[in-house]
Amino acid sequence: MGGTFNAVALVPLTLWFVASIIAHAGSDYATFITWLQAPLTTLLMILLLIALFHHSALGLRVVIEDYVHSGFKFAAVIAVRLGCYGLAVAGIIATLRVAFGG
Amino acid sequence: MNPNSAPQSRPLSPNIQIYRPQLTSVLSIANRITGVVLSLGAVGLVVWLSAAAAGPKPYAAVQGVIGSSLGQIMLFECSFAFFLHLCGGIRHLVWDTVHGFTLRSIYISGWAVVATSIALTVAAWVASLFVGGR
Lengths: 102, 134
Fold this sequence. Notes:
The structure holds two protein chains of two kinds. The radius of gyration of chain A is 16 Å and the shape is elongated. By secondary structure, chain A is mainly α. Chain A is built from four helices and no strands. Chain B has one domain (23-132): 3 helical TM bundles of succinate and fumarate reductases. Chain B contains four helices and no strands. Chain B has helices spanning 23-54, 56-67, 69-96, 103-132. Chain B is extended. Classes of the chains: A mainly alpha, B mainly alpha.
């Protein structure tokens, strides 16, 4: 399901994200935006969003399949997957807006 | 399924009502619970990024919520959930290489997950207090 590579990629990506958040504790808006606009940051943030929501979709699917056995299961899996990918796209759009913004 | 059998609920063998929690089973369900918690946290991540993209006022509003007492508690819980899920996930990835299946290894790695998660959570918050200068 492509889950292993995705999971392995998430280790450095999430650690980078957490370290960045810690490093920016207490920063003002301008500092934060400047960081987010940096090309490397934009790239890593987009990769993080894709990997994170793909991982989430896979995991939530397993959880749903374990606990939902009615006909609702199929709809639930689809809805969760759509939600995850929709959120990923929303996050990517926000990141790009900052990257290309003034 | 036998079409002649009546649709009745049959007794299931007891599991969580009977078995004492073990490190193995507790960490297993913890990985699942933290995964679900983090999926909710991921929604927060997108809200936060969208606020940043929207401008300084929306960003300040979201930061205000995060900075509130309730927000900080939830952030702390999410951070612990993250480190627990990260360490538990790495433990799973190691198992995927077909290593560490002896009972001794499982208990050593299990306690390592618990200890590392707590240590990383504490370290992260101490570091952010240092950086934030609060």
